[in-house]
Predict the 3D structure of the following.
Amino acid sequence: MKNSYHIDEKGCYGEFGGAFVPEMLQPNLTELKEQYLNILEDDQFQEEFQDLLKQYVGRPTPLYYAKRLSETYGTKVYLKREDLCHTGAHKVNNTVGQILLAKRLGKKRIIAETGAGQHGVATATVCALMGLPCVIYMGAIDIERQAPNVARMKMLGATVIPAKSGSKTLKDATNEAIRDWISNPTDTHYIIGSVVGPHPYPDLVARLQSIISKEIKKQLLEVEGKENPDYVIACVGGGSNAAGAFYHFLEEENVKLLAVEAAGKGVDSGESAATSILGKTGIIHGSKTLLMQSKDGQITEPYSISAGLDYPGVGPLHAHLFKSKRADFVAITDEDAMKAGLQLSKLEGIIPAIETSHALALLEQKTFKEDDIVVINLSGRGDKDLQTYIDYFKY
Ligand SMILES: *Cc1c(COP(=O)(O)O)cnc(C)c1O
């Protein structure tokens, strides 16, 4: 049987996905499940969405031929410039889509979870744009570590609520957001920030981010005379920028998909976020997927120098791409990522987000042929990571 890389009628990608949530959350999810496709496929929705992507986000983002990087590695490297999106990363593609969806569902209040604060900022941004109240849940430890993003969210008018339970990081913030949603089922929409969570979120977010691969196809056709590259490379935290960059290539089996996770201090060091490679099947935030867990099934704390990659799970689409071997999963250490980030800065004048630096590091790790077309999704810019770069390189 041919593999499908899209959800089935139960919201599953192969053996992964679904919706494992408390009964009290079912009504919210049922409403979303029954309406999201109709809304997304509605002409008026698409018109408004495409207009905002163009005029507000700044799409289409360039597909930039990186000449000096290509010369260095003896292959053809194109960078999909999601770093040039408004707010500096791909995350806003999803929040713009979901805020329009929320309005059509008649919701008057928005909640979201955030780890490093990037999704919180992207959510607070579109709430300001639409004049909707916005509550962001964020781990108390992350609030301390990510002060500039907390300030941004507040300036944009959002209320930031610290999650003080558990490890006081992303997974605890997510639990708090889910609790809020259960208590406010009729007026509130929960904007999840990646292709994670219960059905229909992974499919919803993947569709909203799929604009990335749609543009890549069109842009490659213009410059190379063909729509398909040989490789698409993207970093994976929860998996949304990779899902967007892979989406329209999933069925094109001659396009090799490379998913890059964070090895932290090394895959076997006990301090990593190489979820697919180390993970076992389990349930996290309402979805059956691969996640890092101890022998007795406790979720283990992930580690990466990059705050956007240290999620203990991965979206169910990626778990399926891993199991079915449709995508190759590679883990890159902090050290190799930081080197690759510095190299891109010096060779191309682009300072990438450290998440993205993990994807860039693959050029050093893998050999590509001279006429290979390699597209790397440049998920975000490095401004937010400047302090980490400074501390690391001792500038
Ligand atoms: C959040 C983030 C990521 C990781 O999230 P995904 O859902 O895996 O894309 C990657 N890059 C940047 C720049 C981010 O802000």
The chain has a mean pLDDT of 96. DSSP finds 17 helices and 14 strands in the chain. The pocket of pyridoxal-5'-phosphate is lined by residues 89, 91, 118, 194, 235-242, 308-309, 353, 355-356, 379-380 (CB under 6 Å).
